[in-house]
Amino acid sequence: MSGADHLTAAEVAELNREYTFYDWSAQDTVKAVAVESAEGSYLIDHDGRRILDLNAQLMNVNLGHQHPTVVAAIKAQADKLCYVNPRFASQPRGELGRELAQITPGTLSKSFFTLGGSEATDHAIKIARLATGKQKIVARRRSYHGATYGAITLTGEARRWATEPGVPGIVRAADPYQYRCRFCSGQEQCDQRCADDIDEVIRVEGPDHVAAVIVEPIAGANGVVVPPDGYLQRVREICTEHNVLMIADEVMSGFGRTGRWFAVEHWGVEPDIMTISKGLTSGSVPLGAVVVSDEVAHHFDKHRLWAGLTYGAHTLACAAALATIQAYREEGIPERVIDLGSVLATEYAAMAERHPSIGETRSLGLFSALELVKNRETREPMVPQIDPSFENSGVMRDLGNFMLEQGVSTLIRWNWIFVNPPLTISEDELRSGLKVLDAALDIADQAIA
Q1: What is the 3-state secondary structure (H, E, C) of the chain?
Q2: 43 shares its domain with 124
Q3: How far apart are CA 210 and CA 85, in angstroms?
Q4: Pair 149, 189 in one domain
Q5: How many domains does the chain have?
Q6: Does residue 385 share a domain with residue 324?
Q7: Residue 190's pLDDT is what?
Q8: Residues 359-396 pLDDT 10s
Q9: How much is the pTM?
Q10: Which of 281, 305, 330 is the last residue of a domain?
Q11: How far apart are CA 283 and CA 66, in angstroms?
Q12: Is residue 58 part of a domain?
């Protein structure tokens, strides 16, 4: 069989299953859709079926599939220079660094380029430790920071368990998940005790030993938990008070997904370090970055940065990122996300009225999730929430299968249904996908009737 042979969807799926591994799965349980091409908000499988991508794959294809500006930039760069090792300078690398200095908040000014978000997390904690001379990192209990060894150790959810004990020096604090908060669940307003818990952890661990606090401004893979107003400002105050660096993980929430370039801008917070990826190239080429403040950057003027990657600052990827940022600007992506986000929030509110299985809806811009429950009063989860195998998904699996049968793909994980479409999605496409989701929720309602 040659690479030019056209295979059916079933043949491609079998070829992948037989010779490659799928992530986070027992391999015998995988049933993958074989995608041959894509355009805009749609995937197209090997049998020509069009599937609406309602989650921008893994919240990363922000500009939609095969965006012409980005594809053209990749082709043009490939004709000149695909790769040069990171000890050399390249124009795309330098220009991308300048662009990121301009669009990131505060004094963030200098970037270290990685292969993706997980590597950005690993290098962020390395940079924080080198710059401060301290070792401990405070991470939150409900968090996801990536799959590499350091990133998964920082992660607060069950996918961490299989690789424990992991990297030393990681300590944990509470998060602002008010719907299930041990401090203020059921109260009308958050009283910031979750932020104060970070303060207490730093004091107990010793401010002279804590290098950084890492937070997702909006917790992504753990249900798109939007913090209450004042929370991130309080975390920033705590870090400043204790001379601890604040790391903002904007891998999922960055590049217009919330209606701003970066989620921290909604609360006027300026981190010392920011990690980015996903929307940086809109999924076209792997690339991530650690962007640091002037103060952190200047530390390495005289001190060696003990970090390096063969494919760091990859020339082709940097060119793709430059084109991606150009498209965000030219198409007014953050602005249109605000409008579409209002549509999404309104539709969610209507769904919550119709479906007793919805415990809470959460969204900011086009960053969103529904949380399903068996009982709204007790908030009992629809399926066991802490299950690293994902195998007890029951009705949630049925929801996903129904939607896919109707030509809509989205991410369903534990009790959460994620809707994070390409930021270029049309209002008609968004409403069409939400209509299928609305019908799928009948399955959840029937399960608790």
Answers
A1: CCCCCCCCHHHHHHHHHHHCCCCCCCHHHCCCCCEEEEEECEEEECCCCEEEECCHHHHCCCCCECCHHHHHHHHHHHHHCCCCCCCCCCHHHHHHHHHHHHHCCCCEEEEEEECCHHHHHHHHHHHHHHHHCCCEEEEECCCCCCCCHHHHHHCCCHHHHHHCCCCCCEEEECCCCHHHCCCCCCCCCCCCHHHHHHHHHHHHHCCCCEEEEEECCCECCCCCECCCCCHHHHHHHHHHHCCCEEEEECCCCCCCCCCCCCHHHHHCCCCCEEEECHHHCCCCCCCEEEEEEHHHHHHHHHCCCCCCCCCCCCHHHHHHHHHHHHHHHHCCHHHHHHHHHHHHHHHHHHHHHHCCCEEEEEEECCEEEEEEEEECCCCEECCCCCCCCCCCCCHHHHHHHHHHHCCEECEEECCEEECCCCCCCCHHHHHHHHHHHHHHHHHHHHHHC
A2: no
A3: 34
A4: yes
A5: 2
A6: no
A7: 82
A8: 999 999 999 999 999 999 999 999 886 665 555 578 99
A9: 0.95
A10: 330
A11: 10
A12: yes
Tens digits of residue pLDDT in 275-299: 999 999 999 999 999 999 999 999 9
pLDDT at 181 (0 to 100): 84
Structure tokens at 179: 């719907």
Q: In this structure, how many other beta carbons lie within 10 angstroms of the beta carbon of residue 44? A: 15
Residue 368: give its domain's CATH number.
Answer: 3.90.1150.10
Q: Which domain holds residue 84?
A: 69-330
Q: Residues 63-84: pLDDT tens digits?
A: 999 999 999 999 999 999 999 9
With a CB cutoff of 8 Å and minimum separation 6, the contacts of 72 are 323
In a domain, 182, yes or no: yes
The answer to whether the beta carbons of residues 224 and 362 sit under 8 Å apart is yes
| CATH number, domain with residue 267 | 3.40.640.10
Whether 135 and 187 share a structural domain: yes
434 to 33, 53, 101, 335, 347: CA distances (angstroms):
21, 12, 37, 21, 8
Q: At residue 267, what is the residue type?
A: W
For residue 260, is pLDDT > 80?
yes
Give the pair of three-digit tokens for residue 385. 């929430």
Q: Is residue 342 part of a domain?
A: yes
In angstroms, the CA 304 to CA 143 distance is 31
pLDDT digits (tens, 9 = 90+) for 221-243: 999 999 999 999 999 999 999 99
**Rounded to an integer, what distance in angstroms lies between the CA atom of residue 385 and that of residue 374?**
12
Whether 244 and 385 share a structural domain: no
Question: At residue 306, what is the residue type?
Answer: W
pLDDT digits (tens, 9 = 90+) for 122-137: 999 999 999 999 999 9
